[in-house]
Amino acid sequence: MRIDNNKNKKAFPFQANELESLKLKMLNWLQPFSIFSYLCTNSIYTTSGRYELLIGVAAEDAPFYGVEAIELAENQDWHFGHIAYTYKSFVEKQLANTLPVFNEFSASLFYKPAIVIYIERDSLDLVIVSPDPDLIYAQILQSRDTVPPIQEALVFSAAETQADYQAKIQRIQEHIRKGDCYELNYCVVANAKMLHTSSLQVFASLMKHSPSPFATYYKNKHQQVVCASPERFLAKDGNTALSQPIKGTIKRGSTLEQDEHQKEILFNSSKEVAEHVMIVDLVRNDLARIAKLGTVEVSALLKVYTFPQVHHLISTIQCQLKEGVRFEEIIKALFPMGSMTGAPKIMVMQLIEQLELYQRGLFSGSIGYVSPNGDFDFNVVIRSFFINEKEHSIAIASGGAITIDSDPHQEWEELRLKVKALESLFQIA
What is this structure's pTM? Predict the structure, then answer.
């Protein structure tokens, strides 16, 4: 069933102080559905963005399809879904997916929603697109605006010890010395059993602790992702495509003065800047494949953005798209994102397959949407929990960019910094 954005749309006004309560009501209302995407910026913007909140709910019998089925012409359908890291084998046929899985999401999966709900940026209207918007709105208002806190203490078991990890970093640096690559993003998985906590509790707790501009609560039956991503993979606004890679991280200071000092350290770090510039160049080259000649530009270079636990270096690279370029062409030109692979991209993906212990699946992939006017926005799936309700399992993964200047111990400390915000949700006093 296709929903008509003109005939089946209705706006419901609310007060600014009702926004957080309304979000919690919608999260509770969503729980009976088997398939949905909840995308939220938490009023944090790294560049212009249309939506504060966007939800797409699939019908139980909704057909699924891949990247290749999506058109970017005007007056098309909404599309919600994901592109997993394993889609790399569709981009480059020689790339294998041989490692054991820790999350079971397919290479790419999209659906047309039966219900769309959104709040545009700086708007005080909740817009519902469905055959009966009034019924949906009434159901949302009747839902709870509270989520019980997490009461389950978990200890995550990492697949690699610190010694194992540091030895891998040294192996990567040996590849760099031999000229195989310049930079490689190496990732580690940790697992736990979760018996008494729902994915809703995890998401609500994560949003309190680490609100982020590309937050996602993505459910596909028993497989669910709870994501506090700070990074945009790729967006299209009109004929402009833009990517915002993150490379460079430092923890927040405990005082305002210390915080500013940490930002200066990050911005002036020759190692972090070198890593970042390599990825910016990679993204520029990727965009050039689908851009009008001469339109690729770095509109913001090495800008420091502040998040609840860390500061990040982020750049914005954009271009004007060639006439008639298809969604599949755009994705294949840039996927997987350079910030989660390295350079040169094909070689490092081959090395990643040799070095890492698990197939990444949806980790370091992307979740997002395509709107009826052909615009789209996709995040980078990092800072995430992967929950399997059938197996009562929960997993996290994290990594960092390794260069010839990387210190293995410092890389381990940065890795721990990134996952601490996730693990701490389950450290019950």
Answer: 0.95
